[in-house]
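Hallway conversation turned thread

IA: we were arguing at lunch whether anyone had actually written out Copper resistance protein D domain-containing protein end to end. Turns out nobody had. So, for the record, here is the sequence (149 residues) and right after it the structure tokens. Reply here if something looks off.
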Amino acid sequence: MTFADVVVAGLHLLFAAVWAGSVVFMTVAVLPAARDGVLDSEPLARLTTQFKRIARAGAIVTLLTGGHQAATGYMETLFSSTRGHLVLGMVVLWLALAALSEIGAARLTDGTDQQKVRTPAADARPFFLAASVVAVALFVDAGALAAPW
């Protein structure tokens, strides 16, 4: 493994962890507080803006670094091996996480633009719950991929 491969793998894991962590944080900390009326629309809007930045950066960096890793290690066996299937599963989960993150954040933004908090948090909750499940599934997939076969 070259130094560049190590850097790419490190960036991939770092951005994936921060993105997944921010999804789970929004789900278990921010949304319940918003649904209970503890947060006003301005703090929720700021948290949502930061979340969107993290999610978009995570999506872009993991796409690029994951593409590099797949191209240098799995392309010839992508459709014919267990490890290749794990990589394909990761791509599907990545797409789901990106979509769910964007939809959930959009639901929050739509409400905070109208100075609302409780309803947007309730509307966004199913998307963030699903995104949290997908984020965990991504790490399980990554663990299986990292395991010696």
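OS: looked through it. The mean pLDDT is 94.
IA: good, adding that to the notes. Residues 32 and 115 are 17 Å apart (CA to CA).
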